[in-house]
């Protein structure tokens, strides 16, 4: 079945964010439609990660508003974003290195757990049923990402590309409706990038997950995005479909013309 892009589910209006004297974002507006792959690009320090942090409530903009599923939030807290189905991965891998792949992915289920720690520790009835259900979901994620053979391996022993895949797995375990990916392919070789690209497209296609992606690899961005927003020095300088953005002279001058 062909993937159909839906209505706007996330709207960012006139967002401005400063850290002391540093203006990270100035009057940024753009929206994200259901089921689309929406990329944010721009040179180093353009404000891309700050934008993701505004979306999931880690940073609170001094001006502007965030509307998610029709609900206006001036300040969306991280737990609200997570409980409303927004999951994210980070630029620098944030996994428990000594824990197995399986246990790391299991931590993605935390918000969905209803029984408390003591009930789980004692394997009481409801906790036991719940754990079986969570394990089942985690195994599904492991199969989907084709990492069955490393499910018991401590994450710290895995090559970088696989660690990034596990991080994606942990985000998927939360069954998000929107996934924020902060440079999921940074530092990867060509083959690892191709794999990651395929998984992102499959997540979007098979689960209908809306994806907001920050990525420096222009080939990847232009290939897989439905729409792209371009930031430069905290300002929006382009927004549209890949072809439109590619041919925007301001974008070419500010971004595509510079080497990274
Ligand atoms: N917590 C913070 N405290 C102070 N300044 C910050 C903070 N977070 C971001 N900044 C500043 O805001 C600006 C935008 O940074 P941001 O990390 O959002 O850019 P970016 O486009 O994601 O960059 P990169 O591609 O290098 O990751 C930079 O000048 C950065 O130094």
UniProtKB/TrEMBL annotation:
Keywords linked to the UniProt accession: ATP-binding, Cell membrane, Membrane, Nucleotide-binding, Transport
Any one of the GO CC terms: plasma membrane
Domain ABC transporter: 10-258
Cell membrane keyword on record: yes
GO MF annotations, alphabetized: ATP binding; ATP hydrolysis activity
UniProt xrefs under PROSITE patterns: ABC_TRANSPORTER_2
InterPro entries per record: AAA+_ATPase (IPR003593), ABC_AA/LPS_Transport (IPR051120), ABC_transporter-like_ATP-bd (IPR003439), BCA_ABC_TP_C (IPR032823), P-loop_NTPase (IPR027417)
Keyword Nucleus: no
Taxonomic superkingdom: Bacteria
PANTHER family attached to this UniProt entry: ABC TRANSPORTER ATP-BINDING PROTEIN (PTHR45772:SF1), CONSERVED COMPONENT OF ABC TRANSPORTER FOR NATURAL AMINO ACIDS-RELATED (PTHR45772)
Protein name: ABC transporter ATP-binding protein
Source taxonomy: Bacteria, Pseudomonadati, Pseudomonadota, Betaproteobacteria, Rhodocyclales
């Amino acid at each position: 079945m062909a993937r159909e892009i839906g209505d706007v589910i996330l709207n960012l209006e006139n967002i401005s964010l400063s850290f002391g004297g540093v203006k990270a974002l100035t009057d940024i507006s753009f929206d994200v439609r259901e089921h689309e792959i929406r990329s944010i690009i721009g040179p180093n320090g353009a404000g891309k990660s700050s934008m993701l942090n505004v979306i999931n409530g880690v940073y609170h903009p001094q001006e502007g508003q965030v509307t998610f599923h029709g609900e206006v939030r001036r300040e969306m807290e991280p737990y609200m974003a997570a409980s409303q189905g927004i999951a994210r991965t980070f630029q620098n891998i944030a996994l428990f290195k000594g824990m197995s792949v399986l246990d790391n992915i299991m931590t993605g289920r935390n918000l969905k757990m209803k029984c408390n720690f003591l009930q789980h520790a004692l394997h009481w009835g409801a906790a036991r049923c719940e754990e079986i259900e969570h394990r089942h979901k985690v195994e599904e994620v492991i199969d989907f990402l084709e990492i069955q053979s490393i499910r018991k391996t401590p994450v710290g022993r895995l090559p970088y590309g696989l660690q990034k895949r596990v991080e994606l797995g942990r985000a998927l375990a939360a069954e998000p409706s929107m996934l924020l990916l902060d440079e999921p392919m940074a530092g990867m070789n060509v083959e690892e990038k191709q794999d990651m690209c395929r998984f992102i497209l499959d997540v979007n296609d098979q689960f209908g997950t809306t994806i907001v992606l920050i990525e420096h690899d222009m080939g990847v961005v232009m290939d897989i995005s439905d729409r792209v927003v371009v930031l430069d020095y905290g300002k929006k300088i382009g927004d549209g479909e890949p072809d439109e953005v590619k041919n925007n002279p301001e974008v070419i001058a500010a971004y595509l013309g510079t080497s990274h």
